[in-house]
Amino acid sequence: MTAPWIDGDTSAAALAIAGATGVAFGATLERAGLGSARKLVGQFYGVDLTVFKVMFTAIVVAMLGAFWLGRLGLLELSRVWVPETWIAPQLIGGLVFGVGMATAGLCPGTSCVAAASGRGDGLAVVAGMLCGVLAVGLGFGRLAGLYEATPRGALTVPGWLGVPYGAVVAAVVAIALAGFHVAERIERRP
Amino acid sequence: MTRRWRRWLAGAAALAGALAALVGSPYRRAGAEQAALARGGDPRRPGPGALDVAALVREVAGQDDHVSAVELARWIRAGRPGLRVIDLRTDAEFAAFHIPGAEHVALERLAEAELGRDDTVVLYSEAGVHGGQAWVLLRALGHRRVVFLRGGLHEWLDDVMRPTLAADASPEARAAFEPIAELSRAFGGTPRRLGAAASGSPAARWRGC
Questions:
Q1: Chain A residues 126-165 with CB within 8 Å of chain B
Q2: Per-residue 3-state assignment (H helix, E strand, C coil) for B70-83
């Protein structure tokens, strides 16, 4: 039998799995200490690079898992959603997101973790995030042009660079391991 | 986590990454990746040339796939914007008679026809079968505003050019016949009252496709 076993994204089973995955993700973030704004802000001051290490580890684990499960015939990758790319709106959205993350010290996931742990700053960030979602929704008529600008379809790094999947996987693992080594050296600085 | 565990995990990741560079694509079937990306990354969205069968079934069940001859005549007379009536028959058949304003595009050249995304395309053939088949083909090519003339040219001739009101028609049928007779005359037709069936035998009505 080949994964994914569930078709569609609105069935009860799919929603249950999404809920369980979200709870597991939140629990992992909490165990890594990412519910604390100090931990996240520490990354911008170069004193605590836990966020970088946790997130890059998640990317490498997911990438190796998807690649090898697909290669071994346990996962049908053509049935896995590849998000589409819109360069301008995603660039601008990324900058807005980054400013918000540096200011609040929390990102959407960690703010939920912080709120669930009873932290006031987490609740404030979640409330602000919902206000932002509402504002974008109400002003979507004006933003629609930007929202649909510079579409590039479903892009993957191997497709974009024209290199085999395996080569990109090996390169990302090498970059991650080098990044972890450098991060730990930075953290050990006096 | 101990230093030893971290080294072990880093080594495992390095090994899995290095081996990945030596093996082939993680996609199991040839072309599966291109097909997935062509659908905008959404595995459920049909790609170009593919059919969303469930959506087509809904249209057919809802009778949104076809138009009646009388309705088409109303669209033509009202000058419906973007209306493109396509005659799929042979050159000789088109030259002999066609629906006013129709364009001739033989079935075998349908894929190359220049049809706008906002055009309302009405397909017709002799008796409707080729019209229905061409509807599927255009939907497979991604055209969304396509319908076919249900009974083909036969329905046009019977219901628009030679509409007939039976002698024993109800008062409602007589009232409904008036605007159709007026529409028929606008297209040069000859509406008939109190006559027997004027379109000939069923065999003659459904000859050809």
A1: 153-154, 156, 159, 164-165
A2: HHHHHHHHHCCCCE
